[in-house]
From TrEMBL:
This is Isocitrate/isopropylmalate dehydrogenase. InterPro entries: ICDH/IPMDH, IsoPropMal-DH-like_dom. SMART domains: Iso_dh (SM01329). One of its GO terms (molecular function) is oxidoreductase activity. It comes from the Bacteria. It comes from Actinokineospora iranica. Residues 2-338 form the Isopropylmalate dehydrogenase-like domain. Keywords: Manganese, Metal-binding, NAD, Oxidoreductase. Its cofactor is Mg(2+); Mn(2+).
Length: 367
């Protein structure tokens, strides 16, 4: 199984090592041979770009990173690679790629009363577009289109049916600043919803927020969010409905452009954490969860995600954490203890279900 790897600055190198180490162990435990192809470029973080000094220099580096990463993604997709793990990189470069490859971000937020399938529209809107500089001003030009809106809605409906095959979602909402678009977005959504035979509620972001505060989540809720809303609200939704933090989460970005055939990119939700670079202090939880998800969803390692969660629970019981979670352990110590716990959990799986095996060792290849 071939998997791509893209590494940004800041703590990217440390998290890439965590990902490789974890996927290696998962491959060994589940008899799956992984080949990891690493992008040869180390991509800028926002803070590493600031050292370039000057808007024009930063613009050039941003474009170069975007063009290189887009080529890497397209090359991996052409080879049939189903997934890429990427550490944090400069958002401006990243959104140029997401616009060109028509990306959506997927996260599942579970509460005691309901489940939220959050689909973030990364392919259009303010986060995408191009900048034009003039003395003391930056003009940003961006686009909304019916074509992209329909692709995003169609993906959300497919994903909802996959999540709830016995009946789909109870409600489908869209959170966009549609009042700024001359009524066009509302017309598109009504037409698209009618053709798909579903009810979609298009609301201003503050209305969605107010209703969530007042009523909470329906048992099965889909929210399609413009990035202008979803990026800001994501940590709030995690805190309010899942009692979770960004530092522990990964998400998947699915690319809808036909040239990349739904190539899926996994990323940690937290940023590059440049201030922690080289200190062996970065929280590895989101990265190891992403490795388990890739192993199970793309390489057939059934039970890998549950085994990882049980291993993380074992560490929690032992008080093994990095400092951001109130612990005193280094990244290396946490990962070492986690993989030992993972060995025990998969051994238990073998005893009870016959899943997992340790017959084959994986191969890691960097180019």
């Amino acid at each position: 199984m071939d998997i791509g790897l893209a590494v940004g600055r800041g703590t990217g190198a440390e998290l890439a090592a965590v990902f490789e180490r974890t996927l290696t162990r998962l491959g060994h435990l589940y008899s799956t041979r992984f080949t990891i192809t690493r992008s040869p470029r180390v991509y800028h973080s926002y803070f590493s770009l600031l050292a370039e000094r000057g808007a024009e220099r930063i613009r050039q580096r941003t474009q170069q990173d975007a063009e290189h990463y887009e080529r890497f993604c397209r090359a991996q997709a052409a080879l049939g690679v189903p997934a890429i793990f990427r550490t944090a990189m400069n958002a401006q470069s990243l959104y140029l790629v997401r616009q060109r490859m028509q990306a959506v971000k997927v996260d599942l937020v579970r509460s005691r009363t309901g489940t939220l399938l959050l689909i973030r529209d990364e392919a259009q809107g303010f986060y995408t577009g191009e900048n034009t500089h003039s003395p003391d001003a930056v003009t940003r030009t961006m686009t909304f289109s019916k074509e992209i809106t329909e692709k995003v809605i169609a993906f959300a409906l497919r994903r909802a049916r996959r999540q709830w095959p016995d009946g789909g979602a109870d409600q489908i909402l869209m959170a966009y600043k549609f009042h700024l678009l001359d009524g066009a977005l509302g017309d598109w959504v009504r037409d698209i919803a009618a053709r798909h035979g579903v009810d979609i509620g298009l609301f201003q972001p503050d209305t969605v927020n107010r209703n969530l505060i007042e009523h909470g989540l329906a048992p099965r809720t889909v929210i399609i969010g413009g990035n202008e809303w979803a990026d800001v609200m994501h940590p709030v939704l995690l805190d309010r409905f899942a009692s979770d933090r960004q530092e522990n989460r990964f998400t998947e970005n699915v690319h809808l452009h036909p040239d990349v055939d739904r190539l899926t990119e996994y990323q940690t939700v937290h940023g590059s954490a440049d201030d922690l670079a080289g200190k062996d202090l970065v929280n590895p939880v989101a990265t190891v969860r992403a490795a388990a998800a890739i192993a199970e969803r793309h390489a057939g390692c059934a039970g890998a995600e549950q085994a990882m969660e049980r291993a993380l629970d074992a560490l929690k019981a032992q008080g093994v954490h990095t400092r951001d979670l109130g612990g005193r352990h280094s990244t290396t110590e946490v990962v070492g203890a986690l993989l030992d716990a993972l060995d025990r959990e998969t051994a238990l799986d073998r005893e009870t279900t016959g899943h997992a095996s340790d017959q084959a060792a994986p191969t890691l290849v960097a180019d």
